[in-house]
Design goal:
A four-stranded antiparallel β-sheet has the order 1-2-4-3. It has six helices and four strands, in the order H-H-H-H-E-E-H-H-E-E. The longest helix has 17 residues. Helix 1 crosses helix 2, helix 1 packs across helix 5 and helix 2 packs across helix 6. It is globular, with a radius of gyration of 15 Å. With 153 residues, it is an alpha+beta fold.
């Protein structure tokens, strides 16, 4: 993969990490699914991937998936997650052993939504849609996953 010149990361919130935001998202997910159905939830997450993360999507369209690596490093480090990223010529693999967001929600909410991780899966799919890459998300356990970027065949 061709290396992109270093530019400021667009999505780089600083300051206090407000993990309770994830609790609000968890409650909202369940509300949307109960009121409108899982298809509508997935449409919302697709819009987030395409509209909110338009800059990441543009990088993927331009053949620069390493911007996702920068994004992942910023947020997973910021939230003190247990993760690593392996970059090879054929793929980029983010392995999350302990997702801080998931485990915080498990601590503060009666339950983690069965669709909580859909936000990662569906946003990733939307970011990659129509680009030279795909992002496969494998849920490997409660609050654990692998997110793999590969060039489309």
């Amino acid at each position: 993969m061709q290396k992109l010149p270093e530019t400021p990361l667009r999505y780089q919130e600083e300051g206090n990490v407000h993990l309770d935001f994830h609790g609000a998202v968890n409650t909202t997910i369940d509300f949307i699914v109960e009121r409108y159905g899982v298809e509508v939830l997935h449409e919302i997450f697709a819009k987030v991937g395409k509209d909110v993360y338009v800059d990441l999507r543009r990088h993927m369209l331009d053949g620069h998936p390493e911007e996702m690596v920068r994004h992942w490093r910023h947020f997973f480090t910021r939230e003190d997650a247990d993760y690593d990223i392996a970059v090879s010529e054929d793929e980029i693999v983010l392995t999350v052993r302990r997702c801080t967001a998931y485990h915080h929600v498990a601590k503060i909410s009666p339950s983690v939504s069965a669709h909580f991780c859909d936000q990662t899966t569906k946003v990733n799919e939307a970011i990659a849609e129509g680009t030279p890459y795909r992002i496969d998300t494998e849920i490997t356990g409660p609050g654990a996953c692998r997110q793999i970027i590969r060039r489309r065949a």
